[in-house]
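S., here's the first fold you wanted:
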Amino acid sequence: MQCVILAGGLATRLWPLTEQIPKTLIAINDRPFAAYQLEWLAGQGVSDVVYCIGFLGDQIRRAIGDGSRFRLQVRYADEGEHLKGTGGALRVALDAGLLAESFLVLYGDSYLQVSIAPVVHAFRASGKPALMTVMRNENRWDASNAVFEAPLVTLYDKKGDDGVKRRMKYIDYGLSVISRDVVAERIPAGVRVDLADVLHRLSLAGDLAGYEVAERFYEIGSEGGIREFARLASEQGL
């Protein structure tokens, strides 16, 4: 299995901490966060990782290298100084010849505890070009942004009005499976594109499968999230 990790953003919410270091390399209990992610992926059977990098991306290259110490093959798709958004980053990876026929997408600041194999099986069984994992949220962890009517995410919308938001009980869990054709056909080269907008359009077209997850997610996109994950890592001996 291949996993693409989106790790090219500016992470301005955490400045000044992330002005000099990429968010995915923030030290958690004296280890870079990326090490926790990569160990989890290797343990789940992932063998191939593509990092989409941009801001301070050379630091990620130096810290992770070829991934061999994590029992992974790691390669890099570099956006350079002109960031192209989470969708545009996937297009950069496509144009570099790095994407498998279908692949997992994970954000560089998320730590998940779901089993990956059933997610991939659900994607393949769905016959849809993309699948989003979702968790029933009721606005607990963040604003809910999805309507899930198994087996589909019938609406994914991070920008909806109040009427739309009231319908949403689920949240994007942070792990998706996407067909390479989605990137080739829906994300133009050289253009800034948010992956959320692509997934939104897929949901409206009935082309976004869903997989419900019960386990909560962890993130290091905020100071509170960093403290929470540090506690989890200590308690579980990660």
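And the second, which I think is the more interesting of the pair:
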Amino acid sequence: MRYNRILLKLSGESLMGDKQFGIDNKRLSSYAQQIKEIHDAGVEVAIVIGGGNIFRGVQAEEGGMDRTHGDYMGMLATMINSMALQSSLEAVGINTRLQSAIEMREIAEPYVRRRAVRHLEKGRVVIFGAGTGNPFFTTDSAASLRAIEINADVILKGTRVDGIYTADPLKDPTATKYDKLTFDDAYAKDLKIMDMTAFTLCKENNLPIVVFDMDTPGQLMKLMQGNEIGTLVHNK
């Protein structure tokens, strides 16, 4: 396998599938099957998932709600998605642990780095919920932070498109795809891959990012097998 330990970052919006809101069970099952494939091949898998299919703190602020309050609501949304994904993974026979940055003893373990690493070493998939536990930080920042803490080899950012383009390929048919980029190139071109905090964390800690299409079954395994899937962002 190309990587031994990965942090898979999924957006909440991706769980909607063809719906306008909430969770598409078919999409959830597809993700669980793809994760099972690489898990069964021996890859240690940690996951961070957003909450945008349910609630976004930034949108709440635009509507007049206090940003801090809205961000905490967004963290709760990530826990709903994390629990849904945990259930789907366990339905296909994978042992999982859900750790929360906000204490919720009845449904999740508190986040403890050493315990998370031990779970991974024992072959369990670990899902990190509730972001960083702090307002004003996105789940991209949480993914970067957790990946660094657990010494992941890479962040795999699963999206609806097959990589990073010069423009939005869904809106601009002339957009062209990058196969590889340096962090400095991405800064210079002002590409919106992750928020700046998350992106800088990865750059400073030499943690590569691969942006790829998670909605096409089989892509995750191909990536693990060394195929040139998606776009790789790395230091020189």
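Why I say that: The longest strand covers residues 5-10. The chain has one domain: 5-234.

Talk tomorrow,
H.
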